[in-house]
Design goal:
Length: about 240
């Protein structure tokens, strides 16, 4: 959240970045070939480098998604083979790069500002904004509890780790519920009227840039279609 606000691309219209980041994920879901997926991975690596995004965060985010996909697709090896699982893994790495690019260059407030202009999405934006603060509170509570238990040697042994992890989860839930009351009191004290106002912001919109994004998405779609047909003919 903090890095997205200081990104060199933060002033670009969120719609452009949303189209660039979200559409390839949907399109690549239909790909049966590794070539278009690798192409998208290379493109987003270049975009990350151009945006000067935090490499550690991008790598950690992408590898975590890839590790989860690899672990989840173990059972597919026996039914579909290694090549099918390799495609799943590449799709996951590609999606991780796309989502990390969007999250590190687009502040959530900018997205909510654009979406809240539509009446049928305004309530959803208000819920999202409230959940944003709630997730930050959960994260703060987790690190306080984790560091407190770790400083007392609570994770030294296997049995202690299991036992104290369960206790930490219970305390985290209880403390979070208690903190919600203070959050609600803080919201009410600031005159919350049932909706969240968003500050207006001028975005840098470019038809040339939008055209380039559309051209890339069309090219990627055509590549997926072409390689899918070639794989069918080859079989």
């Amino acid at each position: 959240m903090a890095l997205s606000k200081i990104s060199k691309l933060s002033d670009i219209h969120p719609g452009e970045k949303m189209l660039l980041s979200i559409f390839p994920i949907a399109a690549i879901g239909f790909s049966h070939s590794a070539v278009p997926i690798i192409l998208n991975i290379i493109v987003f690596i270049i975009l990350h480098a151009y945006s000067k995004n935090n490499r550690k965060i991008v790598t950690k985010f992408t590898l975590e998604i890839g590790a989860f996909a690899a672990f989840s697709s173990i059972t597919f090896v026996f039914d579909y083979g290694l090549s099918y699982c390799a495609i799943i893994l590449l799709k996951s790495l590609s999606a991780g790069l796309c989502l990390s690019f969007f999250s590190l260059t687009t502040p959530i407030d900018d997205v909510l500002l654009i979406l809240s202009k539509h009446n049928w999405l305004k309530d959803l934006c208000d819920i999202t904004k409230s959940m944003e603060r709630f997730l930050v509170v959960i994260d703060e509570e987790y690190y306080i509890l984790y560091n407190s238990i770790k400083s007392r040697g609570g994770f030294d042994g296997f049995k202690l780790r299991i036992r104290n992890t369960g206790k930490m989860a219970g305390l985290l839930f209880i403390n979070t519920m208690n903190r919600w009351k203070s959050i609600k009191d803080g919201i009410d004290s600031r005159g919350y009227r049932g909706y969240t106002p968003y500050l207006a912001k001028e975005f840098n919109f470019s038809f040339f840039r939008l055209g380039a994004v559309c051209l890339y998405t069309i090219t990627l779609t055509l590549a997926i279609y072409t390689f899918n047909n070639n794989s069918i003919l080859f079989k």
